Amino acid sequence: QVQLVESGGGLVQPGGSLRLSCVVSGFTFNWYGMSWYRQAPGNERELVASISNGGGSINYADSVKGRFTISRDNAKNTVYLQMNSLKPEDTAVYYCSRGFRTPDYWGQGTQVTVSS
Fold first, then answer.
1. What is the DSSP letter of 98?
2. Which residues contact 103 (CB under 8 A, 6 or more apart)?
3. Residue 38 near residue 48, CB atoms below 8 Å
């Protein structure tokens, strides 16, 4: 069955960095684009970044451009989200999803808290 497992979340001070990972199984990873979403308390889930199956197309939300980097390693069935210069407003549960524009499977999420 399709599985997506995120890791790497935690508590970090403003200005700090975290690297999220999402290891997938149950499907041919290099056939699919992948995305990261996030959801803060009281807010709707929002797209953070997407990457195409070969990595040649990448999109970012305006709020994270220049600070976050999405990447993938097709040999390791893993997609990453490098988050730098973190702000308190980045606090949310971060979810990995299968799909470049239309997600169809989701991970369980990993909490990111940015606070001093």
1. E
2. 35, 37, 97
3. yes
Task: Select from 110, 32, 38 the least CA-distant residue to 72.
Answer: 32
d(CA 31, CA 29): 5
- Could you please report the per-residue DSSP string of 28-81? -GGGS-EEEEEE-TTS--EEEEEE-TTS--EEE-TTTTTTEEEEEETTTTEEEE
Q: Are 50 and 100 in contact (CB under 8 A)?
A: yes
- Residue 88 belongs to what H/E stretch? none
Of 89, 94, 108, whose CA–CA distance to 35 is shortest? 94
Question: What tens digit of pLDDT does each residue of 36-79 get?
Answer: 999 999 999 999 999 999 989 999 999 999 999 999 999 999 99
